[in-house]
Amino acid sequence: MILPALIAIGVVIGYPIVRAIQLSTTEFNPLAGADPTPVGTANFEQLVDDPIFWEALRNTAIYTFGSVAIAAIIGAMVALLVENLSGRARVVKTLLLTPWAVPFVVVAFLFRYMFDAQSGVINALLMDLNITDQPVDWLVSSTWALPTVVAANVWAQTPFFVLVFGAALAAVPNEVIESARVDSTRGLAMARHIKLPYMRNAALIASLLMVVANFNDFGKIWAMTEGGPGYATTTLVVWVYRLAFTSFELGYASAVGVIWLVLLLLFAIAYARMLRRGS
Amino acid sequence: MAVAVSERSAPAARPAPRARRQRGGRAARNVGIAVALFFALAPIYWMLSTSFKPELEATQSDPSLLPNEYTMGNYQSLFNGAMPFGSFVVNSVITAAAAALISLVLSAFGGYALSKGNFRLREPMSFLILLTRMLPLVVLLGPLYLLLLNANLINTMLGLIIGYISFAVPFGVWLMKGFFDGVPKEVIEAARVDGYPRWQILLRVALPLTIPGLLTTATFIFIDVWNNIIYPLALINTIENQVLPSGLMLSFTGQFKTNWGGMMAASVLTSIPLLIAFFAIQRSMVRGLTAGAVAGE
Amino acid sequence: MAKISLRDVEKSYGSELVLRDCNLDIDDHEFVVLVGPSGSGKTTLLRIIAGLEPVSGGDVYFDDVCVNNIDVGDRDIAMVFQNYGLYPHKSVYENMAFGLRRRKISKSEIDERVRQAGELLGIGDLLRRRPKQLSGGQRQRVALGRAIVRDPSAFLLDEPLSNLDAHLRVQMRAEILKVHKTVTATAVYVTHDQVEALTMGDRIVVMRDGMIQQVGTPDHLYDYPANRFVAGFIGTPAMGFLRCSVRRSADGDTELVSPGVQIPLPRERAAAIPADVDTVEVGVRPERLYLDQTAARSGTLSGTVEMVEQLGSEYYVHVNIDDAVITARTSRDQRVEIEESVKLTTDGAYAHLFDVETGAAYA
């Protein structure tokens, strides 16, 4: 019973990994009909000199860690705000979680519409408030496209942090809160010195999950910008997809994937260390 | 792994001299909550409102808060327009449900083995599963594509389901392990003492005790699959065979790129199943995702 | 209906040896208590007998059959777990019946056995409830009931009373013994509470650091502890210890002496100390120390009162003698104050003597 399940998992996960590593040392266009041609480490050498690689790496870092940092901070604040809501007011908590339940493609559509240069509500608001006198080309500007995509992601992701931090706060032992109150700790001091430390582990786990989710997030970006304009919103995942499924350079795409795998592994190890130290 | 999701009772009234600052604090808190609610819900309101607007009103540069003229046209044209919206829905429901069910069975076995198994590699295996959760899907996509290509499964529901399962199972195993960890060791051992073989203990003791976990895991996988856009884009190559997210994305391009009303109507319909699933499992979801992390046990 | 024997049983987790050299024979129908501080290996030993853990070395025999490779479900044992291990999703009735259904027993017999056990344990009217709806004591009874209905050849109980409050614990102690008398199966009972061990066991096995220290009846363990650890572990309040020199006079008399202490030993006690030993660890039970002066008790110990515990019927007086603290159990008529200098008397015949290095008893 144990073995079959583990073997199934091993095959489903293990095969693609091994194959990806193997493909990364070849040149291969599946549409050309030829078999993969071994090229050694040529793909990796090309990669280092590829400016798009570095741009994608930078975009990935901004998208991944930028979204998580902003969403986590807002999430912690909101969790503290709604912590003591009780009775009927608790419906507020549920409502605050709604964005997380919105499908990615819908998030993308929503932000495409709201940030549209001509008919978007954001530009209308900015112009009504005289912050700008002409429409900003959010998603077609190489400056603003990435921040806009991050904004969409933050909107979709913040509820998750609210949820996790809420659970962490509920798990702070009552006695700790009470003894702090006996010591006349209240308000912000209570939040900072008593509650935040209890949220540390939750913050680590939640951030890890969301960092991984963002690393892998293809749907929101692709449905908003398809990685453009140019490569302005092309993260690694989008780039690999573009390489593999629009220019059909499977070998090169796999090489990017392998590099990425290594980066993720390093991140995971650093993270596991941090978590162990915490507990 | 018990995460206390219960409410702590609100702090009792504090001494009088503080009362004023208290009131100020409470007002600030309520303003904060209002702002948070606005940001969370305004886009959703906007989606609903726009989906009932005629095309001209949806595209005007000075948008109206409520539709000046209500229309169901956007919804109607989804089903009798050029786009095979109906097929998207059917394909999405079939593939997501099948992937969720099959993944659930595999995840239950795997999660049970990792939680209650008694073999030497249990710990490293668990870590490995956690690691595979971090794997970039797109890296796996190339080899998977070739595999399905060789098996003649490109552009088929079955191929897509296999693709979904390959990324859903590690996640499911990890979730189910967390839920099985919540079943006391003694209960399993009691069943062993009572003479039941392992697979019967799983069926008659462990699974009945993790029904909320099973539902949560299935729903989670369903949501994950419903959201996924890269697999159908890569593995399906005709528009009628597409599922909702990829199909919509491919449909609202070119001349339809600014068909905001239609886009929002499709968005509303696509969101509904997910919203229902989400609120159904909201409670046990946190527990599943943060097992062990929050309570620090 | 099983004799249980352990031969050189050993258990290690990785490089950590948690049990070694465990040899033990448990007779049919016997009630044996494994007792020791936490980490002593008592629960591991029980789980090895149950078959929940494999041995790393040595053999386990049930009625002279080696059961090393027989899985727990086939050993014909029943077990009561510390946290009861009740099936939360099954009713009380089903909790008890579950183990029987596996064994091809007719429905009517299952029903009869479950109802009988329910009556015996006073939970007959709770059979339809779920474990969640029961109090701690009731859950305990269900766990016992689940073991009884199986009619096993051995009962294994792992700290079954540790989750109950003090009052209920005393009550359940009696009840478990009553049940044992009724079903007459061999029972192995693990506890960290030496009072529980003394009151319940036909024989007691004292464990420490993965090794069996001593096996014996409660009286035997109390009167003849094999080493300093057993002496200090068994008995409340605990035995006090003093390090004394052995002074042998020319005419064959022997005295234990240290600052403030002088205890003459009867000849037969003195004979137990090897001739080349001149320092010993002396242990005195609190009830063998007296505040009144009687000529018949020639041993004297002088010190200052450090603390007095009042227990209503009696007092425990903790006396500091040259930086060692020993406890005397006194009647409430003999009032002493803290810091007061007192002189205790005792009888050398009741002094326990231990090797200074190894802690082994001289006997």
TrEMBL record, chain B:
GO terms for cellular component: plasma membrane. Keywords: Cell membrane, Membrane, Transmembrane, Transmembrane helix, Transport. Residues 1-23 are annotated as: Disordered. The chain crosses the membrane at residues 27-48, 88-115, 127-148, 154-180, 201-223, 260-281. It comes from the Bacteria. Gene3D superfamilies: MetI-like. Belongs to the binding-protein-dependent transport system permease family. PANTHER family: INNER MEMBRANE ABC TRANSPORTER PERMEASE PROTEIN YCJP, MALTOSE TRANSPORT SYSTEM PERMEASE-RELATED. This is Carbohydrate ABC transporter permease. It comes from Phytoactinopolyspora halophila.
TrEMBL record, chain C:
Residues 4-234 form the ABC transporter domain. GO terms for biological process: carbohydrate transport. It holds the Pfam family TOBE_2. GO terms for molecular function: ABC-type transporter activity; ATP binding; ATP hydrolysis activity. Keywords: ATP-binding, Cell membrane, Membrane, Nucleotide-binding, Translocase, Transport. The keyword Transit peptide does not apply. One of its GO terms (cellular component) is ATP-binding cassette (ABC) transporter complex, substrate-binding subunit-containing. NCBIfam families: PRK11650.1. This is Glycerol-3-phosphate ABC transporter ATP-binding protein. It comes from Phytoactinopolyspora halophila. The lineage of its organism: Bacteria, Bacillati, Actinomycetota, Actinomycetes, Jiangellales.
